[in-house]
Write a structure and sequence with these properties.
The protein is an alpha+beta fold and 237 residues long. It folds into two domains: 30 residues; 205 residues, no CATH class.
């Protein structure tokens, strides 16, 4: 029995529409206002968090609402039109998150919201659990930088820009505690101490909020810091 053409065409259109919707959501082109969810709260976890974070990428009003929280101090900054693959859109300067200073880190809104969720839900609870104190400031090695991906011959010859080139990444080297001590990724990752337990818990916990999470186990380039970004790849190591 021959299957009618119209139903097959409709099925194909539905499948193609689903694929298109997934791609748009994955790249941040489905704004949070189009999603049937409550507003993002940086102190709580939600279903479909990845899509909701990515939906902030081009949605300035949703970004303002998401970061309008007592635990987040930030300043929204003017867009810098991309030139040669470098620039940013809908970015902020993070001053403080969950009681920890960030030193005015320049990051795109999805990264800023991811950091706020991570600090509130993972970092500060882990600091109390393993170290009996809180994190008071973040030692970061940089956010925006107009450069290619490092350590890859393919990226070198194909001129592949790093996620840092669009303020879509941050590198974290250490955490200064309220008791005056500092936890260092380089010094403490492989130590058999509570510092190491703290670092490994927050590293693993970051995978819920960022698409790429790299640390000392990834390669020698990350021996002294964590790299977080919300780019197109998914990798947690």
């Amino acid at each position: 029995m021959r299957i009618p053409l119209v139903p097959n065409t409709i099925k194909l259109l539905v499948v193609l529409g689903g694929i298109l919707l997934f791609v748009m959501g994955y790249t941040g082109h489905v704004r949070t206002g189009m999603m049937p969810f409550a507003p993002l709260n940086v102190e709580k976890s939600w279903f479909f968090l990845g899509a909701r974070l990515q939906g902030l990428k081009y949605d300035r009003s949703a970004c303002v609402r998401a970061l309008n929280h007592p635990t987040v101090q930030k300043t929204h900054i003017k867009d810098s039109l991309q030139k040669n693959g470098c620039g940013w859109e809908n970015a902020v300067r993070l001053k403080s998150v969950a009681g920890a200073r960030f030193g005015s880190a320049k990051v795109g809104c999805p990264v800023a919201a991811g950091l706020a969720l991570w600090m509130n839900q993972v970092v500060q609870p882990a600091a109390q659990k393993h170290l009996g104190t809180s994190v008071r400031s973040i030692v970061h090695f940089g956010t925006y930088a107009c450069r290619n991906i490092r350590g890859s011959l393919i990226s070198k010859y194909l001129n592949m820009r790093s996620e840092h080139a669009t303020a879509n990444a941050i590198d974290l080297g250490g955490f200064k505690l309220a008791n005056g001590k500092t936890v260092s990724v380089l010094k403490h990752w492989r130590s058999e101490t509570n510092y190491s337990k703290f670092l490994k818990e927050i590293h693993y916990g970051a995978c819920s909020y960022f698409r790429v999470v790299l640390g000392p186990e990834a390669n020698r380039l990350h021996a002294d810091h964590f790299h977080f970004d919300r780019g197109s790849l998914i990798r947690c190591k």
